[in-house]
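Usage

Read records sequentially. Each one opens with the input sequence:
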Amino acid sequence: MADYSGPVEELAHQIATNRPRLDLSADYYEATYRLQAIGLAVPPEMRALTAHIGWPRMYLDSLEERLDIEGFRLGQDTGAVDRLSDWWQANSLDEESGLAHLDAFIYGRSYVTVAAPSDEDEPGVPVIRVESPVSMLAETDPRTRRVTRALRLYRSSDQTWATLYLPDRTVPMTLRRDRWEVDGPVVEHRLGIVPVVPLLNRERLSDRHGRSEITPEIRSLTDAASRIMMDMQAAAEIMAVPQRVLFGVEAEDVAGGGTPTEIMDAYLARILAFENEGGKAFQFTAAELRNFVEVLEQLAKHVASYTGLPPQYLAYNSDNPASAEAIRSSEARLVKKSERKARMFGGAWESVMRLAIRVIDGSVAPELNRLEVVWRDPSTPTFAAKADAVMKLYAGGTGIIPREQARIDMGYTLEQRDEMRRLDDADPLSRLNALVGSPADAQAADAGRFETAA
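and closes with the structure output:
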């Protein structure tokens, strides 16, 4: 039997090496990162005042919320598209795909694995799973840009398992006495390719591994905002209440019993009166916190410039409410960035579905190279505005798009469009129009005869 322990140890070591960097990105996303320099210039008593700033999560969630896959498109081959849609739903990828996109934004990459169904799975439906780079790694050939091998780790409290993905087989492994051993039957899929597809974020020609969307400038601004919030809380705790100085007054004059609670209650009272004629009181001006607010607003503007987030997302805006046109204009960069991310991830999902077909059928037809992912519009037009635009293009059947395309542009799902076609077939008026022609068809025919006569 072949020895697979060497490749497993190499890939497991790389996963462990990458883990601190990935955990740091996750800490920024979850707003749990503690500033490294917080103890150098800040007393230990103030560390509890460190604020958690959620700008990275707001940015990444805003991107992920605009990336929704509605289905697939392949010319006239509706049968192949229907089968892919069935597989998509069977693997719960409506929900899982969003998790893959979010992990790719946080860590720079995520993975999708494809396997043949087991005896416990539905026959004829491939098993498609999304995986996190925290526990999985895939190596890519820099020349062919194809995955050469991959490893997925599974851990429990007292056991560690792994799955090694190779171009011709998938090997289950387990760690026993500090040595990796084959655990179960080796799956000889003989696909010729590794059944793993990476979803890469911010990929570059010089860096094919992907980078986190939480860039160094976003991290530094988040750290700066956390420090400013801490300083503002400290100033509010110490100097937000006007400080008073009393001369010639005994403690018993302030509060009868002189207990700390009674003295504090008297100190915070609006009016203090004493019988002692020699008593005098002075009051310092309370601290002005506006400078902290202005600094936070400037930092938020820098975050908006780096990320493309609209001003209203970061809680700063003009006094007057923005109009619908102004809101759409402010979202232009975020929408364009979402479209770029959709195009980037779309190629990976197309590869996933072609790989699924290869797993089930053994080969992929050439026409499937034209497979496209259909994404929902990442912009936020009102329903009325979208309906008005689609109706103008449809124009009662005489426009530049047919009825089915109008329904697609309105965002109806495949199941909803199938139900609409069934209702159309059951409508007597629709059947009559199919026999004698609709008024729109007659209008188009008259227009054609007029042009011919002219």
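Summary fields computed downstream for this record:
- Residues 332-361 form the longest helix (30 residues).
- The CA atoms of residues 143 and 208 lie 11 Å apart.
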